[in-house]
Amino acid sequence: GLAEVIKHGAIIDAAFFDWIEHNIAHRQEFERWGERAREAGLVEVSREIEAAAGKLEEANEHLRKGMGHL
For residue range 36-47, what is the model confidence (pLDDT) as tens digits? Predict the structure, then answer.
């Protein structure tokens, strides 16, 4: 019934939130790695790491959109 729908919605909502938080932490770490690579003169490596960080942000945008449909 309705209680099951609410319970499953809360579980899914929590999972989306956890993944977003997880991705944010990884994105921040990637940004630090990218900065270190740039400081070491590894510009191409830095660009690739920053691109990976951008993909994590993209993933978060999709997760937020998904949450909006709950």
Answer: 999 999 999 999
Environment class of 6 (CB within 10 Å of its CB; exposed 0-12, middle 13-18, buried 19+): exposed
pLDDT digit string, tens, across residues 9-59? 666 777 778 888 888 999 999 999 999 999 999 999 999 999 999 999 998
Amino acid at 68: G
Q: Which two tokens stand for residue 66?
A: 């998904």
Give CA–CA dist 43/26, Å, rounded.
20
Three-class HEC string of the chain: CHHHHHHHHHHHHHHHHHHHHHHHHHHHHHHHHHHHHHHCCCHHHHHHHHHHHHHHHHHHHHHHHHHHCC
Question: What predicted TM-score, i.e. pTM, was given to this entire model?
Answer: 0.70
